[in-house]
Design goal:
It is a single chain. By secondary structure, this protein is an alpha+beta fold. It has a single domain (12-100), classed as Alpha-Beta Plaits (2-Layer Sandwich), CATH 3.30.70.100. The protein has helices spanning 28-40, 66-74, 76-89, and strands at 12-21, 45-52, 57-63, 90-100. 7% of the residues are buried. Helix 1 packs antiparallel against helix 3. A hairpin with a 4-residue loop joins strand 2 and strand 3 (57-63). Strands 2-3-1-4 form a 4-stranded antiparallel beta sheet. It contains 3 helices and 4 strands; from the N terminus they run E-H-E-E-H-H-E.
Length: 108
């Protein structure tokens, strides 16, 4: 997965997903890769950043509108992955949606 996403000028939206996993892989990595690939093909998708250690994972996806986020939420393959996540992969998770009004980047 690429590093920091270079998003367009604001406003745009960020979906912040933080999670604590259950024990074991159980196909999680393969599904996560499929979801990134599928999301990247959705209308309004701007990019994704993700990091995980032993305890906590944080994924931030960027979208051009609330409508694009709603369409992604309703995607049938994404809904199936959400169901499996609740059933098998996540002990705890949170989902937050925020409007990005300002950003800055630094690059050497």
């Amino acid at each position: 997965m690429p590093g920091i996403v270079k998003t367009p000028d604001p406003p745009y939206y960020a979906v912040i997903f933080a999670s604590e996993r259950t024990e074991g892989e159980k196909g999680y990595g393969i599904m996560a890769d499929k979801m990134v690939e599928l999301a990247s093909k959705q209308k309004g998708f701007l990019g994704i950043e993700s990091a995980r250690d032993q305890d906590l994972g944080i994924t931030v996806s960027y979208w051009d509108s609330l409508e694009s986020i709603r369409m992604w939420k309703e995607n049938s393959a994404h809904r199936a992955a959400q169901h499996k996540g609740k059933k098998e992969w996540y002990q705890t998770f949170s989902l937050r949606v925020g409007k990005v009004e300002r950003h800055s980047f630094f690059e050497m």
